[in-house]
Amino acid sequence: MANKEFMRRAIELAARNMRDYEGGPFGALIVRDGRVLAEGHNRVTSCNDPTAHAEVVAIREACARLETFALEGASIYTSCEPCPMCLAAIYWARIERIYFANTRADVAAIGFDDDFLYREIGLPLRERSIPAQRLLGDEALAVFREWLELPGRTLY
Amino acid sequence: MANKEFMRRAIELAARNMRDYEGGPFGALIVRDGRVLAEGHNRVTSCNDPTAHAEVVAIREACARLETFALEGASIYTSCEPCPMCLAAIYWARIERIYFANTRADVAAIGFDDDFLYREIGLPLRERSIPAQRLLGDEALAVFREWLELPGRTLY
């Protein structure tokens, strides 16, 4: 399939998901070598999972099917520009190319927080709307030091 | 329990998880009204899920138990400052306070990408290391318009 056909499928998933009251109007596909590895749609409200955005659902599904935690060489087609959670998940999954349809501005215009979150995440800790406080840094650092010495640890 | 005791438990989860080879040295707790709603530890490598960071695991577990997609009034205790994926998940979950132990600099020093991701996410689309391309914006926008008119939709 061509790029546009993959995106048309992501948009179709978004529309169907919304009409089935599964969650927000968002769909995504993970594709590699012209083959769909997994599809995802937003399931936040139907599955009681605030992390179940279409991109995260598709990434988890592709990784589960392939029994891997890294999708090198894969692309994601998403019906909307990823929110910061999904964008970071795309990086962690080692996906190499993003195609999107609706933009961050489009999704702000229908009432979602994506654009607000991009601004929050760029702020220093003290200026964000959720207060953050550091505790027991020394005790936690000892665990990080132990990680560096752990024999045969799996890096990701 | 006092704040430090909750954090000590998050650090204990991080250490145990690492020593059991379940994933990276990270643990988290969701707490409300002095009660632990859920615990989480990093399971990226053992569960083949790049989104299974301690915070995301704890949020999903708390929401599943309470059958809700929003954790108003809750705090998160995490053994390390959340990466952008986890920070955005905390916002989406409506958690109201963050306690962390290790910092973004500490986790960069042991080889994880958190600090790199904070910088990437702040860049304009064209300057990021993962290329992003827009396709079929008009077709996708029609779905967003339909969302606004959808009777009885669940907002989140």
* Radius of gyration of chain A over all CA atoms, rounded: 18 Å
Run of helices and strands of chain A: HEEHHEHEHHEH
The biggest beta sheet of chain A reads: 4 strands, mixed
Mean pLDDT of chain A: 97
Care to give the gist of this entry?
Two copies of one chain form a homodimer. Chain A is an alpha+beta fold and 156 residues long.
Describe the structure.
The structure is a homodimer of 156-residue chains. In chain A, 45% of the residues lie in helices and 18% in strands. Chain A contains seven helices and five strands, in the order H-E-E-H-H-E-H-E-H-H-E-H. The first copy, chain A, has a four-stranded mixed β-sheet with strand order 2-1-3-4. In chain A, a hairpin with a 2-residue loop joins strand 1 (27-32) and strand 2. Chain A is globular. Chains A and B meet through helix 1, helix 3, strand 3, helix 4 and strand 4 of A and helix 1, helix 3, strand 3, helix 4 and strand 4 of B.
Q: Which features would summarize this protein structure in a list?
A:
homodimer; alpha+beta; four-stranded mixed β-sheet
Please write out the topology:
2 copies of one chain form a homodimer.
Chain A: H1 3-19, E1 27-32, E2 35-41, H2 44-47, H3 54-66, E3 75-80, H4 84-92, E4 97-102, H5 104-109, H6 114-121, E5 132-134, H7 137-149
Parallel strand pairs in A: 3-4
Antiparallel strand pairs in A: 1-2, 1-3
